[in-house]
Write a structure and sequence with these properties.
heterodimer, A: 11 strands, B: mainly beta
Chain lengths: 115, 111
């Protein structure tokens, strides 16, 4: 299993450009999420999905769109990049291990710089 | 809302020293608690977890006990190695795919 894969690893955008961060998992997990990591702030949830065709907003959704047409893929779209979106982005997939406990697996991350 | 607070870093120790990284949480209900580790240039890996009060999670010599009375989940290791240098995140489970993270603690171990 490749686990959770993300592309690209690095990206530089100019303000106003759009792009899509790709995320795929091969573990047949129902749940997938996108987080951003900023210095001193841990990880914050952007959007999440509980299954194909179902998405919802997290803590910091503004400026981002997601869709989930298949179980495997969960792309994150930046509509019009802003310097405030400079961050490291992590995709994760998760499954229920028992009761109300879910275990998350993270991808290697995409480092995005917006100039 | 739910939140996690970790001790401020960075933390620098000598090899074979005893490690404690403090973590306290605020949550409604009974969340599951986790410690994740992030090695340089990599994503987060689950280090250990505990799902109910008084549970002890352990892995790779690290331990943490879910203390409901003090709302804490402190990470400990008896003898650290240079290879333990990383950023450590405490987190709680707020539903199926919602992890709430602390701000992370950078740990550096000197030989």
């Amino acid at each position: 299993n490749a686990g959770v894969t993300q592309t690209p690893k690095f990206q530089v955008l100019k303000t106003g450009q759009s792009m899509t961060l790709q995320c795929a998992q091969d573990m047949n997990h129902e749940y997938m999420s996108w987080y951003r990591q900023d210095p001193g702030m841990g990880l914050r949830l952007i959007h999440y999905s509980v299954g194909a065709g179902i998405t919802d907003q997290g803590e910091v959704p503004n400026g981002y769109n997601v869709s989930r047409s298949t179980t495997e893929d969960f792309p994150l779209r930046l509509l019009s990049a802003a310097p405030s979106q400079t961050s490291v982005y992590f995709c994760a997939s998760s499954y229920r291990t028992g009761g109300s406990t879910y275990e998350q697996y993270f991808g290697p991350g995409t480092r995005l710089t917006v100039t | 809302g739910d939140s996690v607070t970790q001790m401020e870093g960075p933390v620098t120790l000598s090899e074979e020293a005893f490690l404690t990284i403090n973590c306290t949480y605020t949550a409604t209900g009974y969340p599951s608690l986790f410690w994740y580790v992030q090695y340089p240039g990599e994503g987060l890996q689950l280090l250990l977890k505990a799902t109910k009060a008084d549970d002890k999670g352990s892995n790779k010599g690290f331990e943490a006990t879910y203390r409901k009375e003090t709302t804490s989940f402190h990470l400990e290791k008896g003898s650290v190695q240079v290879s333990d240098s990383a950023v450590y995140f405490c987190a709680l489970n707020q539903g199926a795919q919602k992890l709430v993270f602390g701000q992370g603690t950078r740990l550096t171990i000197n030989p």
